[in-house]
Specification:
With 565 residues, the chain is an alpha/beta fold. Helix content is 32%, strand content 19%.
């Protein structure tokens, strides 16, 4: 009789393979599932009582920006708190490798604007013990990890490394430059990258994620022939996949055709993407994705089912960067922003731009004044900007800016809930090509907590609203996500698979409340949501969280080529 390291006893097993749920035990040896069935608990060093609980595979989060945070937070929270055991980093073409030593500062500054990662935290927390992409993978490999990590080779740092700034934004690559970049991409894939990523929105008025100087990112301005040269590297290798955001459907199809590899298309949602940019008809997007796959183009739509809400202040808000007039006044330090927002001519320009009263979900008549700081404004808390404008008989813009300026831009604004009808969410989360995600984990940490999406899906959309089954949800959260990302050895519970496992109380599962946490290096704060109901979270057979408390264990592994071996 084998001796088990851990036995999970009497749980309701949902294996991630769409198998109907069943009651049973799981025995773990050396980080892997060794047996599923009826197991004598006396044969285990450790026994987890899962009576009345769900036992399921850990979630695989395909869209995160933990490239820097993992160095000071091995568990990549808040994702790991919400059941994620594997993350994919390097999304949207953003990352830190390759990078010359003299360009490290500029690389970090870029991330402060486009993904709103605190500069002071990166400066204090990153080791910068690499230059090339293979060296970055080696750094990630030896860094303690509480989750498994897979990484794209992002195009922005690659193109900057070879072409330099601003040349990479101003022209296409020369033949010599492209030969070197494809060589480096091939080298990165050989070292274990899962593919490449890029932000490809080419219409400036729709791109909210800008460089530190307000200009577009490199991949927003790159030539199509250069993009297809990178896609050709994947075809030559016969492996890897592409993640893109902002690309047209035509361009997405071309990438899939040229590469011969899967493409993760962001984003499939009902109203807006994770940055607040309005989207088209989701039903049309579903039809297009189905048609692509029928024609042999493997394109997945990363679905967003969690409510896209914001809490923000004008001290550091960057997601109005789509709009030139807002971008002009919201660049710079808080002091510089105050000066520009107080200028009558700037006010006039903003009013003119916003004369229809709508910019995005983060600024319209329903925007809520959440927290104020000046004693004369405490009575405004809970009011909407529309209500305040009506009360003061002033323009919406003036009501918004007057409140913020009186608080030295510290006023916290909260977007109003925008519930989506059950039938729409059901269509999205169960559509053929939908892969759940879009946590943006590690990014926009002062504005959003989208990393709660697994808990929201399980507790809100399934338990409470009954939009699909747990079997279907865990297949998409884990197995289907693994398949889309080329992760070969995990995402499901079966004998021989790594023991990335959740044990949770479905009745008790809750996303938790939004709160501020001052837990980043250099005293930087972020918004977090601590869930309830996850009793045990295991990564490679080792418990990382028990009843929401971190054990301190770091059993995560770098998934080169999609697996840990």
């Amino acid at each position: 009789m084998p001796k088990f390291d851990t036995v999970i006893k009497d749980g309701t097993i949902i294996d991630g393979l769409r198998t109907p749920r069943y009651k049973g035990d799981i025995g773990i040896i050396n980080g892997k599932v060794a047996s599923i069935g009826g197991i004598n608990a006396d044969t285990a060093d450790n026994v987890i009582d899962a009576e009345g609980k769900i036992v399921a595979p850990g979630v695989i989060d395909l869209h995160t920006h933990y490239d820097s945070q993992i160095y000071w937070d091995p568990w990549c929270s808040i994702s790991s708190w919400h059941g994620v055991t594997s993350v994919v980093i390097g999304n949207c073409g953003f990352g830190f490798a390759p990078c010359k030593p003299e360009d490290q500062e500029r690389s970090m500054l870029t991330m402060t604007r486009n993904e709103a990662v605190p500069y002071e935290s990166m400066q204090a927390g990153m080791p910068w013990d690499w230059e090339t992409f293979p060296e970055f993978l080696d750094s990630m490999d030896r860094t303690p990890k509480g989750v498994n990590v897979l990484t794209y080779m992002p195009l922005n740092p690659l193109m900057a490394y070879v072409m330099g700034l601003p040349a990479a934004k101003e022209r296409g690559a020369t033949d010599a430059e492209m030969a070197e970049m494809t060589r480096l991409m091939s080298e990165g894939l050989d070292a274990g990258a899962c593919g490449f990523s890029a932000q490809l929105q080419t219409t400036a008025e729709f791109e909210p994620q800008r460089d530190v100087d307000g200009s577009l990112m490199i991949t927003n301005t790159m030539q199509e022939k250069d993009l297809m040269a990178f896609a050709g590297v994947l075809r030559d290798k016969g492996r890897g996949f592409i993640q893109c955001i902002g690309a047209s459907r035509e361009l997405t199809e071309e990438m899939a055709a040229v590469s011969g590899r899967p493409v993760i298309y962001n984003v499939l949602a009902a109203l807006t993407d994770q940055h607040g940019t309005p989207l088209g008809d989701y039903r049309d997007a579903i039809r297009w994705l189905d048609d692509c796959n029928e024609r042999g183009l493997r394109i997945h739509g990363q679905s967003m089912s969690v409510e896209n809400d914001y809490q923000y202040t004008l001290e550091d808000w960057n997601l109005f960067d789509t709009h030139e007039v807002w971008r002009d006044v919201l660049m710079g330090t808080p002091e510089e922003r105050i000066k520009k927002l107080s200028d009558p001519e700037n006010r006039r320009r903003i009013r003119e731009y916003c004369k229809d009263g709508f910019v995005s979900l983060a600024f319209d008549t329903d925007l809520i004044i959440g927290v104020t700081y000046h004693p004369d404004q405490t009575d405004l808390e809970g009011m909407t900007i529309g209500e305040l404008a009506a009360q003061r008989n002033c323009d919406l813009v003036d009501a918004f800016l007057d409140v913020s300026l009186k608080d030295d831009l510290k006023t916290i604004f909260v977007t109003s809930p925008r519930p989506v009808a059950d039938e729409i969410l059901r269509d999205i989360i169960t559509s053929n090509q939908a892969v759940p995600g879009l946590s943006d984990g590690g990014a926009h940490t002062k504005f959003q907590t989208l990393g709660r999406y697994p808990t929201d899906l399980l507790a809100n959309l399934i338990r409470d609203r009954k939009l699909t089954t747990l079997e279907e949800a865990h297949w998409r959260l884990s197995t289907y996500s693994a398949m889309a990302a080329g992760i070969q050895d995990r995402g499901f519970l079966k004998e021989g698979a790594p023991a990335d496992i959740l044990v949770y109380d479905l009745d008790a599962l809750h996303v938790g409340e939004v709160e501020k946490a001052y837990d980043f290096p250099a005293g930087a704060w972020r918004l977090v949501q601590r869930p309830r109901g996850y009793e045990h979270i295991l990564v490679n057979g080792i418990e990382t969280f028990t009843n929401g408390e971190c054990t301190g264990a770091t059993p995560g592994q770098l998934l080169r080529f999609g697996n840990a071996d």
